[in-house]
Every structure is written in structure tokens, then in C-alpha cells.
Amino acid sequence: MAAPWRRCNRPLLEAQPWMQFKAADGRDLLVKGLFQEDGYHVMLCDLEHVWEERVETEDISERSKALNPNVEAPTATILHNLALHLDVQRPGAVYAARQQEGSLVLALSIKISGLPYQWEFRCTEPPTQNVKVTHLVMPLVTMITELSRRQQELFKLLAKKDREIQELRENRGTLRRRNLETAPFDPKTFTADMSLSKDFEQVAQDPLKILSSPDSQALYKDTALLLNWKSNAAAYEEMVDVGMMADGSTTGTWAGKIPVSLLPAVSVATRTVSPVTSPVKRPAPVMDSPTKQDEQVRRDELEKKLEEEKSRAKKKKKLLV
Fold it and tell me: What per-residue confidence (pLDDT) applies to 237?
């Protein structure tokens, strides 16, 4: 069963991994973006400052005409190509950055359908630099902690493998291929060797390169989603309880469901959730519509009048006799 924070996987800029870009002037930039039908949200970082830009479809069309007066392209095509060239640095495209007071412009020169096309991401500093914590500090610190935890789990697994190999040797197990023989794993020796390796020095020279690896991007995305879930746990929990997931999907209808915020407070320990069976659905009582009720009243009144006329007719017959 998927973890709750995975089920609420709505599009978030926080969950988009950073990519390392090399600008035309040689500077390194971290770039991330979220492109949707109604526009985009882009963020740039040089490890000192953070800039961002939000643009809607109307502004995209106007800027495109201003920068490319001889090129006409649908907004959807523009967004697709911008997302394609910001997802990873494409060969043949030119990424030129120029910094102005309080802003950073990333000029992009590409080709759309064989025609030269220009675009400018005009990013400004956000009102608060708290975005550094949200998009850089907390995810990266959490990633380091998680990688350290995974390393310890691997150390435990290797220790079990060594005990397994030792038991096989004690039971006269033999290794036919001597080149596969290894010494028992020592975590302290391994850590010391890694700290003295040349690869460690290369990582220190270009620490941003590792962010572009698929494994690092996947871990960053999971970390950002988990942090976002924890910081908005109450809101997400209410969405799940009322049947509305954060990605827009539903777990049922709104009928007969009350938002958690309107219910009495219940401690987590007292909640019972059955992962196997679901509550028995009882059919809702069928209520007569106002039209049917009115018709029934009219019928009852008509039958009453008929009975009264019959009784009066019988009385008249008795008088005549």
C-alpha cells in the first residue's frame, strides 16, 4: 500500500528536481521549472541568490510576439518547447544569463519547427528568501540524513552476508572462482578509504554535478514531497478523509461526508482503519418527490368525494321508496 504522502502527488514546484546548467558566460546555475497548461513557474539559483518567475498563458503570447515578431506559434507549442529545454540543457541551444538589479534574465535561443526562436525567463527575487530553505536547505539536509541511514542499512546487510559466507566455509563450502573472493567488510576501513579517494576530491570540485543524476533527482523529489506532506499534514489528511486527493482524484463522492474540520477532535490513537475491508454501503432511503405526493393527495380527495356522492345517492333512493 502506497504511503499517504505518495498518494497526494499533485504537481508542485518544490518536488521538481534541480538541474545544473552552464550559462554562456561560464557561470553555473541551478534551474527548475513547473510547466502546465495555464503557464509556468521557473526558479533559478546560483547558490547565493534565488530568482523566480510565474507567467500565465496571456503573458506568454504577448512576450512571444514581442521577442519573435515574425514567428507565430500556439501557446501550447511554446510551453512544450520551453519545458523541453529547461528539463535538461540541450545541445545546440544557447542559455545566456544577464544579471540586473534584483533580477536575473535567462535568455534562451532555440529552434521551433526549424525556425529560430528567442525567449527570456525574467526572474526576480522572491519577497522572502525562505525559498532557499524550502527548495534547497531542507531537502538537501534531509537527503543527506536519508543517504546516511541507507548506508547504515547496507552495512548491516553486508555484515549478514559475511556471516552467511563464513557459515558456508565452515560447512566445507568452496569458491571455484578465486577472483570473486573478498575479505570481511569493515565499515571503519571503508569510510577511511572513501575519505582518501580521488573520487571524493572530484566531488568537492563540482558538487552540483551529482544533483543531475537520475538517482539524486528521484531522491530529491521523494524528499520534497514528504516534507511538503508533513508541513501540510492537516490539509492533506482532510482531503483524504473527505475523498479528495491532492492530485485532483477522488476516493468517493461528497454525499454524506463531513469535512474533518467540522468533526469533533479525535486522537490518532483512537482511529481505526481497515486496509482490507471497506464500510458496508447501505442504500439511501428513497424519498417521494413533491409531484408524487401531490398526485396521491388529489387521488385521495377524489375517492373521498366519490364515496360521499354514493352515500347521498343511496339516501335519495330510500326517500323515494
Answer: 59
Residues in CB range of 108: below 8 A, 6 or more apart: 82, 85, 86, 93, 94, 95, 96, 118, 119, 120, 121
- Pick the more confident residue, 236 or 310: 310
Rounded-to-integer distance, Cα 86 and Cα 132, Å: 20
Q: What is the DSSP string of 185-215?
A: P-HHHHHHHHHTSHHHHHHHHSTTGGGGSHH
Q: Are 203 and 210 in contact (CB under 8 A)?
A: yes
CA distance 65 to 19: 28
Average pLDDT over residues 13-27: 90
Checking if the pLDDT of 75 tops 50, the result is yes
CA dihedral sign of residues 203, 208, 209, 214 = positive
Work out the average pLDDT over 278-291.
Answer: 44
The model's pTM is 0.64
List phi, psi (to 5°) of 221: -60, -45
